[in-house]
Amino acid sequence: MFKAILIDKQEDEQRVGIETLDEAQLPEGDVTVRVECSTLNYKDALAITGKGPVVRRFPMVPGIDLAGTVEASACDEFQPGDRVLLNGWGVGEGHWGGLAEKARLDSRWLIPLPAAFSARQAMAIGTAGYTAMLAVMALERNGVLPDGGEVLVTGANGGVGSYSIALLAKLGYRVVAATGRPEEADYLKALGAREIIDRGELSAPGKPLAKERWAGAIDSVGSHTLANVLAATRYGGSVAACGLAQGMDLPATVAPFILRGVTLAGIDSVMKPRAERLEAWRRLGELLDTEQLDAITRTIGLDEAVETAEALLAGRVRGRVVVSLA
To answer: pTM to 2 decimals?
Structure first.
């Protein structure tokens, strides 16, 4: 028997709570993992609260991230006792996820837990830090270098934003952070932001082109914010888009692309091939230090996850939330 958050739906009414389940109820998979830690991401919060169409089948255990120890394996790659990590692959959406004491998974979704991190530290990074690393790598591929000018990070107080700032600053970029919470300026500067701007400067409808400022940007907000970021990106610059906190729409024009040669790079962390996952986690191990992880993260128990999901969607959570299951 094991405990899990279970989301169910009856007659269009969603119910969520902590349930005690039998291991026989676990879905199909060739690896069973004893989960030590999971996380609470924006997508998890949408699933738990029912405020977004994240869950594709019911009942569902949410949690798009997990780290733990293999208990049983029917594959050659992983053996009982191996420490493993999972991000994405539709887990917590179409396949039971990490907000449970046990998970049964497809071995192709797992990678070894990097030696640089404990299970808690890996989940402090989670999909948020992994996505931020993928976004930084996209900027690098598109020629945005540390000496090229200012790089903007929107949604700066969130998990992706926090890690984007920390990674870019570590690599020597001059980072500008956009936030709706000016009281968090000291936190953002401690991560490495050189300047803080109000998100209100970017969130309203803007012009097709604005004065050139950003050499590059990482945007987790979407909608008018992303449109305005593109409009102010310098000639040949690049913007990595990885979120939709403001909205899924993109009320922009082609002007930044055809008049300034701006590149819009989409960042998908869910289905990313294994080789790129391993490279992103290798670089995270090189660039992040444990003190920064502690500054960005707080740990809660499974019984606090539902309440914290509401707070996360309301913008009252900064950085990362680790859910301890050990």
So the answer is: 0.91
